[in-house]
Specification:
single chain, alpha/beta, eight-stranded parallel barrel, 19 helices, 10 strands, 51% helix
Length: 421
């Protein structure tokens, strides 16, 4: 059993107090949600960083993916991107590196003052040379090695099993399998005819995760990769698998969260969020997007933020940043900044729906600052005040905004009222 759950059950809540205060709740309520598996608490004792609570009665968090690829491999640049993500509001980062010295790259990323996640099968495939030669031993050895390095959470596609493969064949999708991890497991099963080792040896996997206190992120290997695939059968079959696996992990005292769909009709988002929550025993839900249309490449950070706001409002707890270069290229520094900011806004919209009493004072503060044309007050209250300040000042000093000038609605009504009074 993870020590945080054990401590909560015993009443030792000292490690939760600062986090509870930051989340505007009590340590007792936070502990209750952790015990029930409705909230996870990321804090790896092997390295120092500010703990992160994800789940019920906490603010919606965001994750940012960084990492090298086989095409572009610049580890120093990935660290720079990760730091930029943190500076713009990221609560966690995931190292998705597939090029270069993966152990050395991860070592540097783990020096950051933030929780770090990985997808171990990426490195396992590199160790094997190709997917066909990947074995259960290589995969589990990779998981254990990454755990020893101090990783906080791992995406593991345990729900991609032979039943899901049958569903994929029964109800084919245009895009097939778009999750890289999901495709690896699908290829393994098609090649060998055998069950996914993470599903078949799930209890052994939980033993490793428990030993190193790694939070399990149950990966969505069958997430739809196209709008037209969002109602296909494989996704729903995986939901059912993840529900059973989530409950088994909770029974073993292993913290877990669930990863959810990628491309989806806007009107389907709330339904899917609530269904996944119910099926999995209300485990914290981690979503990529969802992206609500496929025809805006270059602006998928916006399509993802629209879906993310809807998902967070419906109960999703953790949003994965989508960058402007999604589906096009490895994100550069500017993509990371822009994607992180849009994801942060989406998370904030979710918080406004779920924690209005906490978020409302800041909204009121901004309203008063705008009424008073208090620009410094507006910039201090804004999510990204420096950015707003640069825009306001680009046309020179102005008491109002440069669009309205002397026709400012606020000033006109204020002056009229003053004369009337």
């Amino acid at each position: 059993m993870h020590s945080i759950i054990r401590n909560c059950q015993s009443g030792d809540l000292s490690v939760l107090k600062k986090t509870a205060e930051a989340e505007h709740t009590t340590a007792e309520k936070l502990a209750g949600n952790i015990i029930q598996g409705r909230t996870i608490f990321l804090k790896n004792e092997s390295r120092p960083y500010v703990p992160c609570a994800i789940g019920e009665e906490t603010s919606v968090k965001i994750n940012v993916n960084v990492g090298t690829s086989g095409v572009t491999c610049n580890p120093d640049y990935e660290i720079e991107k990760a730091k930029a993500a943190i500076n713009n509001g990221a609560d966690a980062v995931m190292d998705l590196s597939t090029g270069g010295n993966l152990t050395a790259i991860r070592k540097e990323i783990l020096k950051l003052n933030i929780p770090v996640g990985t997808v171990p099968i990426y490195e396992a495939v590199r160790r094997a040379g190709n997917v066909v030669d990947l074995t259960a031993d290589i995969l589990f050895d990779t998981i254990r090695d990454q755990a020893k390095q101090g990783v906080d959470f791992m995406t593991l596609h345990c729900g991609v099993n032979l039943d899901v493969l049958d569903s994929l064949k029964l109800d084919p999708r245009v895009m097939g399998v778009v999750s890289r991890g999901g495709s690896f497991h699908t290829a393994m099963m098609l090649s060998t005819g055998e069950e996914n080792p993470l599903y078949k040896e799930y209890d052994y996997l939980l033993e490793i995760l428990d030993e190193y206190e790694i939070t399990l992120s149950l990966g969505d290997g069958m997430r739809p990769g196209a709008y037209v695939d969002s109602v296909k059968l494989a996704k729903s079959q995986e939901y059912l698998n993840l529900g059973k696996l989530a409950r088994r992990a909770h029974e073993k005292g292993v913290q877990r969260m669930i990863e959810g769909p990628g491309h989806m009709d806007y009107n389907e988002i709330a339904y899917n969020v609530k269904m996944i929550k119910e099926i999995t025993g209300f485990a914290p839900l981690y979503l990529l997007g969802p992206l609500v249309t496929d025809i805006a490449p270059g602006y998928d950070h916006i399509t993802g933020a629209i879906g993310g706001a809807a998902a967070a409002s419906a109960g999703a707890d953790f949003l994965c940043m989508v960058s402007p270069s999604e589906h096009l290229a490895l994100p550069n520094l500017e993509d990371i900044v822009e994607g992180t900011r849009t994801a942060k806004i989406a998370a904030h919209v979710g918080d406004l729906c779920r924690r209005k009493e906490i978020e409302l004072p800041r909204q009121e503060k901004m309203a008063h600052a705008r009424k008073d044309l208090d620009w410094d007050g507006q910039f201090k209250t804004a999510l990204f005040g420096e950015h707003a300040k640069k825009i306001h000042e680009r046309d020179g000093e102005c008491e109002t905004c440069s669009m309205c000038g002397d026709l400012c609605a606020i000033k006109i009504v204020e002056n009229a009222l003053d004369k009337k009074i």
